[in-house]
Amino acid sequence: GSTLVIKDLHVAIEDKEIIKGLDLEIKPGEFHAVMGPNGAGKSTLASAIMGHPKYEITSGTVTMDGKDVLEMEVDERAKAGLFLAMQYPSEISGVTNADFLRSAINAKREEGNEIPLMQFIKKLDKSMEYLEMDLNMAQRYLNEGFSGGEKKRNEILQLMMLEPSIAILDEIDSGLDIDALKVVSKGINAMRSNDFSCLIITHYQRLLNYITPDFVHVMIQGRIVKSGGPELAQRLEAEGYDWIKKELGIED
Ligand code: ADP
Ligand code: MG
Ligand code: MG
Predict the structure, then answer these.
(1) ABC transporter domain: which residues (predicted)?
(2) Topology (CATH) of 4-90+164-248
């Protein structure tokens, strides 16, 4: 497993500060949820960690097992074991889903140590079956014409195939019907081990009925303002975010 440490992170978009001093430590095997109202900066946090060029880290550090993540190229971050599921996964035309997965797996392995084709196919079939996916999805072009639910399910397939040590899942639950939500949760829960930790970013508590986080953090206006256990998510579902704002004297 790996440890991700974020210290006093500040992130700006087009000179506007969005993340205003954020601290978070994720240890091997831990599931953390970050919840917060729209516009709090949750997606900005995910994108900044993954190195999206639009997001400028103005100060602070992000390390993985002591190594500076912010110094790494985007592909090096993936190779180091970080995984990001995007809120809006993009289409890559001309590349089948299976080809994409195989090259992504091989990109993480040493040259000359590529995954044997049969081993890849077996793992792919097994994972797709587990996620109740139509096997034809493997031969379709990545995300092209995928429904919202198929894209999300496909991201969990990527997660299971790539076996990252730390995953950041941004609104993996948005737009899912209850059956798709259950399958997506099943896939994430199947990853639970000491070698895997995850940061689940969500606006709604619903997903956390199926995936029990070890820690819940509330993000408001670019900062984590409160942390607790799963019961915190339940209180947010019942009462919204206003009581926290009131408690901490945060103005809208
Ligand atoms: P959340 O995911 O919590 O809803 P975001 O991180 O998407 O919040 O957005 C935080 C703030 O940053 C919002 O005020 C949003 O308008 C702004 N923002 C996010 N992405 C961009 C962008 N690409 N360009 C300009 N402003 C952005
Ligand atoms: Mg600060
Ligand atoms: Mg968002």
Answers:
(1) 4-246
(2) Rossmann fold (3.40.50)
Q: Which residue puts its alpha carbon closest to atom 5 of ligand 1?
A: 41
How far is 58 from 13, CA to CA, in rounded Å? 10
Distance CA 187, CA 27 (A): 20
pTM of the model: 0.93
pLDDT in tens, 24-34: 999 999 999 99
**Mean pLDDT of all residues belonging to the chain:** 92
In sign, the C-alpha dihedral spanning 89, 78, 215, 67 is negative
Distances from the Cα of 76 to the Cα of 3, 16, 63, 130, 186, angstroms: 16, 27, 13, 29, 28
Distance 16 CA to ligand 2 centre (A): 15
For residues 175 and 58, which has the higher predicted lDDT (pLDDT)? 58
Tell whether ipTM is more than 0.90.
yes
Query: 132-141, 175-184, 220-229: which has the highest mean pLDDT?
Result: 220-229
The model's pLDDT over 77-112, given as tens digits with 9 standing for 90+, comes to: 888 999 987 655 566 778 899 998 998 899 888 889
Strands (DSSP E) contained in 50-208 are 55-64, 67-68, 82-85, 166-170, 197-202
Which residues touch 143 (CB under 8 Å, ≥6 apart)? 89, 90, 91, 92, 151, 154
Nearest-angstrom CA–CA distance, 107 and 80? 11
DSSP helix/strand/coil, 33? strand
CA of 39 to the centre of ligand 1 (A): 6
